[in-house]
Amino acid sequence: RVSTAILISGRGSNMASLVAAAAEPGYPARIDLVVSNRPGAPGLARAEAAGIATATVDHKAFPDRESFERALDARLREASIALVVLAGFMRVLTPWFVARWEGRLVNIHPSLLPAFRGTDTHARALAAGVAEHGCSVHLVTADLDAGPVIAQETVPVLPGDTAETLAARVLEREHVLYPRALATLASHIARNRA
Ligand code: GAR
């Protein structure tokens, strides 16, 4: 199974859905490490409760992005990680880090990419008046939220929706989409190295 790390910054509900999926027999990825850039992120306690090793690499402890990423990269290599999964990880990664993990770095984004890259996707989708919204899993490239899309899930935008109700509807689909997309990617990586 492909040794996988999940990077988080907060709540960690996607991380929890991936950990649950990876506990199923035959799942092609093994979650070996959860790393947060924010000390005390609620997701860390959730990971620990599930018996997953955790680490904190606090970006505020470093003078610049690259030194933060070098520390993060060192932690991942120390754990012999082969695949890095961003799940609510709210730091933009530099081209250096992205190149180092090319093809083995994946993200979930709460919109139907290429629509609504960046933040506040649910409020922006409502403001734009779209009928459908959703989430995308994509490979990470140096351009923010612009890498090749691996999988998407769509939800309707309903009358009376707020950013919160829409976010909750999308999040439910994220929890289904991400485990499925990670399985596809991990199987692909396992086949290529066999
Ligand atoms: C999720 O909705 C995820 O798609 C989004 O943050 C939330 C994290 O929730 N990610 C981004 O906006 C990335 N730019 P979680 O911590 O409960 O998984």
Automatic annotation (TrEMBL):
Question: Any idea which positions bind N(1)-(5-phospho-beta-D-ribosyl)glycinamide?
Answer: G12, S13, N14
Recorded hits in InterPro entries, A to Z, give: Formyl_transf_N, Formyl_transf_N_sf, GART, GART_AS
Q: Where does (6R)-10-formyltetrahydrofolate bind?
A: R65, N107
Read off the CDD domains from this record: FMT_core_GART
| Gene3D superfamilies reported in the protein's UniProt record | Formyl transferase, N-terminal domain
Q: What's any GO biological process attached to this entry?
A: 'de novo' IMP biosynthetic process
Q: Which PROSITE patterns does the entry link to?
A: GART
Q: Where is this site: Raises pKa of active site His?
A: D145
- EC assignment: the record states 2.1.2.2
**Sequence ranges assigned to domain Formyl transferase N-terminal in this UniProt record:** 5-182
Biological or metabolic pathway of the protein:
Purine metabolism; IMP biosynthesis via de novo pathway; N(2)-formyl-N(1)-(5-phospho-D-ribosyl)glycinamide from N(1)-(5-phospho-D-ribosyl)glycinamide (10-formyl THF route): step 1/1
Q: Which residues form the active site?
A: H109 (proton donor)
Per the record, the coiled-coil ranges are none
**Catalysed reaction, written as an equation:** N(1)-(5-phospho-beta-D-ribosyl)glycinamide + (6R)-10-formyltetrahydrofolate = N(2)-formyl-N(1)-(5-phospho-beta-D-ribosyl)glycinamide + (6S)-5,6,7,8-tetrahydrofolate + H(+)
User: Source organism's superkingdom?
Assistant: Bacteria
Alphabetical keyword list = Purine biosynthesis, Transferase
Instruction: Tell me if Transferase is a UniProt keyword of this record.
Output: yes
Q: Which GO terms describe its cellular component?
A: cytosol
Give a yes or no for keyword Isomerase in this entry.
no
What Gene Ontology molecular function terms does this protein carry? phosphoribosylglycinamide formyltransferase activity
Instruction: Outline what the protein does.
Output: Catalyzes the transfer of a formyl group from 10-formyltetrahydrofolate to 5-phospho-ribosyl-glycinamide (GAR), producing 5-phospho-ribosyl-N-formylglycinamide (FGAR) and tetrahydrofolate.
The record's similarity note reads:
Belongs to the GART family.
Q: What is this protein called?
A: Phosphoribosylglycinamide formyltransferase
